[in-house]
Amino acid sequence: MEMSSSHKATAVLVHGAWADGSSWRRVIRLLLGKGIDVVAVQNPTTSLADDVAATQLVLDAIKGPVVLVGHSWGGTVITEAGTDPKVKALVYVAAFAPDTGQSTGDQVGAHEAPPGLGGVTDIGNGKLMMSVESWITNVAQDLPESEARLLAAVQTPLGLPTFNDKVTQTAWSDRPTFYVVSSEDRAVNVELQRQLAVKMKARTTELQASHMSLLSVPAAVAEVISDAVMSVSDERAAV
């Protein structure tokens, strides 16, 4: 079944590591309120290939243009998956954006390690988890502690080799790109975010927010996504 037949672009939202599609819930409500169709991908976060495949399944079900949005690790996913011809623009939210032949780990290693990485624990069976304490102090420090604890409780384990998976194609190289920098990010290096935005020639918005800007300042994040959708939607065809 096709998810959309509108000529207005559909926003497809890709979550980050140790998360699921519900991390976009506040942004989704706001986009729906603007009349924008939205689909949140549920990535397994087991490998780059697996997450790209999950994203591709969503793209295949949509008729019409797409704005592909990635948060954190989701930026790596949309960099690879976003070469689908339906994807007309990309939005990165405090996200990684490796170059061809580069991994997320390569980008992490090229900059000072943010405090959040100290909270990552190997739980065995090839899986990594983020500690509750790090969710509270480093990942979602501008959310109430109760909400940070909730995010920790529902987190999805991350496949151990995931950040070593290398990107084979870069969607941002030939598509309009938007970047939302989180200036108070303690999970993804802030200077890396700024450098990526410049490298991609992205239309950049900087928010005074934690890594979880999509929950702490959802209206600002939704506004950037809405701008991206409007910039590529064929309003004339929709009449």
Molecular structure report:
This protein has 239 residues and is an alpha/beta fold. The chain has helices spanning 25-33, 48-60, 74-81, 104-109, 132-139, 145-154, 190-199, 213-216, 218-232, 235-238, and strands at residues 10-14, 38-41, 66-71, 87-93, 120-124, 127-130, 158-159, 177-182, 203-207. The strands form 2 sheets. A 6-stranded parallel β-sheet has the order 2-1-3-4-8-9, sandwiched between helices. The protein has a 3-stranded antiparallel β-sheet with strand order 5-6-7. Helix 1 (25-33) packs across helix 9, helix 2 packs across helix 3 and helix 5 (132-139) packs across helix 6.
Mean pLDDT: 94
Helix proportion of residues, in percent? Answer: 25-40%
What general outline do the C-alpha atoms trace? Answer: globular
Q: How does the major sheet shape up?
A: 6 strands, parallel
Span between N and C termini?
Answer: 23 Å
Structural class assignment: alpha/beta
Strand order of the largest sheet: 2-1-3-4-8-9
Oligomeric state of this protein: single chain
